[in-house]
Each structure stands twice: as C-alpha cells, then as structure tokens.
Amino acid sequence: MYIKEIASIISTANGAIAQRVHLNGRSFLRRFKKATANTPLEYIQRVKIKAAKKKLESTAKTILEVMYDIGYNDENAFRSTFKKYSGLSPKQYQRKYNKLVHALQPKSFKRQTMNFLEERLQGVKRRVSP
C-alpha cells in the first residue's frame, strides 16, 4: 500500500508541474527525461544525494544528521539511494572523502586506546598485588 501511495503522490506532483508549464503529464515527463536523462523522482534523489555528499565531505555531522538535513526520514531508503547513486555507503563515502573526520580520528586511535587500557590494567594489578 505504501508504494501505491508514493506513486500516487508522485503522479499528482508531476501532473501539477505539468499544468504549471502548460503541458500534459506525459509530455512533461518525456521532455523532463530528455532534458535531464532522469525522471523527476530520480532527479530529486540525485540532487539530495549530491547535497548529502557535500555535507559528508565537509562537516563532522553524523550520517543521520545529514540524512535529516537533506529531507530523508527513512534511514534504509537513504542508505540504499545513496549507495545507488554514489557506489558507496554513506559511512564508506564519509571515511573516504571527509578530511575533517580523519583529523578528528587519528590513525593511531586504536593504538592509543590499547595503551590506555594496558596502563589502567597495570594500575589495577599494582593495587591488587601485595
């Protein structure tokens, strides 16, 4: 049922746009696809994913924050659409292209964490041993 509702909304939106530019719905879709090589829905998705890519490249926002910022409310839909148009998951894309995130998470983070845990463990051992 959900897919039928979405299709109905898209069809109504396309019809409204077609009326506004004084074309019938089929002519509008044909001309739109010829001009952009996308259906209106595909075009909107590409624009949103392009905006998401810019945010993932240039901010330290989480994937969910970016998702909500660009107008998606469904995490699975966002992730699958992102992967469809970019070839990477949002997380993979952020790791690959966001220099800010790399600066905030040094490569030696794992080593630093292990050193910290070992120091804590040695401190506990010293307190326990007689």
Annotate the secondary structure layout.
Layout: H1 2-20, H2 25-36, H3 40-58, H4 63-70, H5 75-86, H6 90-97, H7 99-104, H8 109-128
Helix pairs in contact: 1-2, 3-4, 3-5
Textual characterization of the structure:
The structure is a single chain. By secondary structure, the chain is mainly α. The chain has a domain at 1-37. The protein is 80% helix and 0% strand. The chain has helices at 2-20, 25-36, 40-58, 63-70, 75-86, 90-97, 99-104, 109-128. The N and C termini lie far apart (70 Å). The mean pLDDT is 80.
Descriptors:
8 helices, mainly alpha, single chain, 130 residues, elongated
What is the N-to-C succession of helices and strands? Answer: HHHHHHHH
Query: So what's the oligomer here?
Result: single chain
List the uncertain runs: none
Shape descriptor reads elongated
Classify the beta-strand content into a percent band: under 5%
| Number of separate strands | 0
Report how far the terminal alpha carbons are from each other.
70 Å
Average per-residue pLDDT, rounded, comes to 80
Structural class from helices and strands? mainly alpha
Largest sheet: number of strands, sense, barrel closure: none
Helical content, roughly? over 70%
Radius of gyration over alpha carbons? 24 Å
Number of helices: 8
